[in-house]
Amino acid sequence: MAAVSSASDTGDPRGRHPPERRLLILGGPQSGKTSTANSILGDEVFDVGTETTHSNVGQTEIYGRRVTVVDTPPWAIPSDPEENPEADSNDNAGAESENPTRPPPSLDCEGPCMGAILCPPGPHAILLAVSVTQPFTDTERRAAEEQLGALGGGTWRYSMVVFTGVDKLPKGVFIEEHIENTGESLQWLVERCGSRYHAFDNTRKDTEDNTQVPELMEKVEEMITDNQGWYFEVNELILLEEEQARRALDEERMRMEEHVRQRDQMIGGPPRELRLLLLGWKGVGKSSVGNSILGRRYFESGQETELCLRRQALVSGRRITIVDTPGWDWFSVRRTPKRIRQESQRGAALLRPGPHTLLLVLPVVSSLTARKRRTLLSHIETLFGDSACLHTMVLFSCGDWLGRTPIEEHILRGGRELQRLLEFCGNYYHVLDSKIPGKDRSVSVLLDKMEEMIRENGDKAFLPIQTEWLSEESSYSSDNTEPEDDCRGCQLQ
Questions:
Q1: What is residue 53's DSSP assignment?
Q2: Buried b vs exposed e over 277-288: b needs ≥16 C-beta within 10 Å?
Q3: Which residue has the higher pLDDT, 192 or 9?
Q4: How far apart (Å, rounded) are the C-alpha atoms in residues 4 and 144?
Q5: 324 in Cβ contact with 305 (< 8 Å)
Q6: Which residues pair with 61 in a beta bridge?
């Protein structure tokens, strides 16, 4: 940002053009920006009946001074994770939030900062519209801070809060009392603007005794004087780059939403169901992974699993059935006891008519040698057949060990053997932090990847149960379910 004297902004020295004042109006959804702009212009220049998607310019003359007003689209209100921290937990599955999330702006909507380009060389005042009828929480405060920051450094010295809808305040309550009662977030905003604010009642704009606009312009002149006649100079190149980056993010959001929509169309009516079989060596954290996916401590972790255990929960709108199995030997199929091998097969049999995904759990902290890789693949092919690779996904556990290292970089460092294992699984993999059940936000992404695998497998959506897996089933398995309590009603068959 460069501060430029307004001495060159006073128009023709012979006075043919009145001095100009340029006002940029910013604000969140339903903040009264457009009505405020119309009140300043003294006419219905901008349409208040529809949402503003692009910045618009209006001009008028007030006391011999040309005034340019730019109305802008509402700034985006960032989502607040603290408003609903358990949104993905089983207890709240399917429940409607008391505070519904605000819809994101459409892809055609322009960023509010682009309005600064429409009042070159820059605005004398940035008016932040805040409705007294809308809550102003820390979320709205962060939105205001982000938008002012996007314009560039030094914007706060040119900013003023304009309160709209003051006619809705209780009788006898002045705006100062409203600021004090609303809370720290609004007080922070006013203080950040140098305690500059103005109250607007847009219902009075047609009355003869309306002095709101002249009083506002007097405050604008005082601010310009405090800034020694300078205005905020806009760097168009930076704003255009910011807008391109914002649009790229919006396009990615739209692609993700389309992916979710296609996924919902692919799968039948709710509840959608996924059947997962946890497999892997001893001590790799299969039980912890199962708890993380289900969002609750269903499986006993920290001790060796002896028998298959089936558990079910509603996760991200899907009914998830998981069977935890005993661990295999690290180096040889023959060294894995026959009872353990049979228990793995019986675990698959508990997921009638068959598991959609064989989750091969692999700790990120373990190295994979050629022998270990061959042992894993031998277990899978020996126990579940040659077609098992179509339904196998590698799930990296202990993801917190990666820190800031991307999983793709970890795979490259893991060497050729790890890459060959992933190739066997069709390069389907995911990383999970299984330390705190229900807190890993990537579980929903994992389920999306499983459904993508199912779609790729077409008419082979799951691994069918083989007759030999069913022998002596009741001798070893423990799932606290009756034999007829299976998954034949699954929508993904």
A1: -
A2: bbbbbeebbbbb
A3: 192
A4: 24
A5: yes
A6: 66
At 279, give phi and psi (nearest 5°): -130, 160
Q: Does residue 457 carry a pLDDT above 80? A: yes
> Would you state the pLDDT for residue 428?
93
Please state, as a whole number, how many other Cβ atoms lie within 10 Å of the Cβ of residue 257: 11
Give how far Cα 431 sits from Cα of 275, 373, 404, Å: 19, 18, 13
Comparison of pLDDT for 448 and 98, the residue scoring more: 448
Of 364, 341, 342, 344, the C-alpha closest to 277 is 344
DSSP 152-181: -TTGGGGEEEEEE-GGGSPTT--HHHHHHH
Tell whether the model's pLDDT for residue 491 goes beyond 50. Answer: no
Q: Which residues contact 470 (CB under 8 A, 6 or more apart)?
A: 346, 349
Instruction: Give, in order, the Cα–Cα distances in Å from 262 to each of 258, 427, 442, 451, 452.
Output: 6, 22, 19, 11, 10
**Which of 456, 101, 50, 92 is CA-nearest to residue 253?**
101
pTM score, whole prediction:
0.47
> Would you say 175 and 199 are in contact if contact means Cβ atoms under 8 Å apart?
yes
CA distances from 31 to 36, 189, 258, 348 (A): 9, 15, 30, 56
Distance CA 294, CA 436 (A): 11
Q: Which residue has the tokens 């993801």?
A: 399
> Hey, what are 242's tokens?
């910011």
Judge whether residue 212 has pLDDT over 70.
yes
Q: Are 212 and 203 in contact (CB under 8 A)?
A: no
- Give yes or no for a cis peptide into 437 (omega within 30° of 0): no
Measuring CA to CA, which residue among 431, 420, 343, 432 is closest to residue 389?
420
Q: Is residue 86 within 8 Å of 438, Cβ to Cβ?
A: yes
Of 25, 374, 396, 319, nearest to 200 (Cα)? 25
- 280 near 286, Cβ under 8 Å? yes
Nearest-angstrom CA–CA distance, 26 and 160 = 10
Q: Which pLDDT tens digit goes with each residue over 266-312?
A: 544 445 789 999 999 998 889 989 999 998 888 888 788 889 999 99
Residue 90, both tokens: 């089983």
The whole-number average pLDDT for the span 399-412 is 83
